[in-house]
Amino acid sequence: MSDYRKLSNHLGYVFQDTALLERALRHRSAGKDNNERLEFLGDAVLSLVIAEALSQHFPSAPEGELSRMRASLVKGATLAKVAREFELGDYVLLGGGELKSGGHRRDSILADVVEALIGAIYTEAGFATARDCVQRWFKARMESLSSGEALKDAKTRLQEFLQARAEALPDYSLVEQSGLAHEQQFEVSCRTALHPEPVQARAGSRKKAEQAAAQAMLDILQSKS
């Protein structure tokens, strides 16, 4: 049995039921008693808690802006960052194939584990405790939020960056689609006139892969400007 004391310190919560914690950490590749149902539950709790907190922090913000803020906080990339802060990759339980392919570093798997942990805390301790944990985990990110540029998605920001320089819009193309139907991976390339060499990114959906490729391209272009 793993020593979860360090993980508990990161989470700010100590599970009484170690089996429940291990289920939250178990990817579907590691067996049937995995974290998918807890992930489903945690996703709903996370969305509600973040929506509630945003409405309180930004009482005059319109619904559309609140929705964009929530999307920026609950998106997979943000959850994966939270997971890395908690060093969840050291604890996630994977099947042999995922382990060999570096699944403990994959954004989609790490994001799912964060949601599953929220679902597990809700299951064991109830909504109030789960809400306290989520608010604590996301406090700094929520306080740094503001309307405007930071809330625009990467494709929009890249497009505006190019338009401001009278350049053509970026071109996205699907390089590869692989995997089984329920866990496909999409590799997308992004090309721009300012950086003709294609930049590639991979994610669990084409939309997410395009966003990741746009962000990578934008990082390159901004570093040159």
Task: Kindly list the characteristics that best describe this protein.
single chain, 225 residues, mainly alpha, Ribonuclease iii, N-terminal Endonuclease Domain, Chain A, Double Stranded RNA Binding Domain, 2 domains, three-stranded antiparallel β-sheet, 10 helices, 3 strands, globular
- What does the main sheet amount to? 3 strands, antiparallel
CATH architecture tag of the largest domain: Orthogonal Bundle
Class by SSE composition? mainly alpha
The CATH homologous superfamily of the largest domain is named: Ribonuclease III domain
Q: What can you tell me about this protein's structure?
A:
This protein has 225 residues and is mainly alpha-helical. It folds into two domains: 5-145, Ribonuclease iii, N-terminal Endonuclease Domain, Chain A; 154-224, Double Stranded RNA Binding Domain (2-Layer Sandwich). Helices cover 58% and strands 11% of the residues. The protein has helices at residues 5-11, 18-25, 36-57, 63-74, 76-85, 96-100, 107-125, 127-144, 154-163, 206-224; strands at 171-178, 185-192, 195-203. Strands 1-2-3 form a three-stranded antiparallel beta sheet, with helices on one face. It is globular, with a radius of gyration of 19 Å.
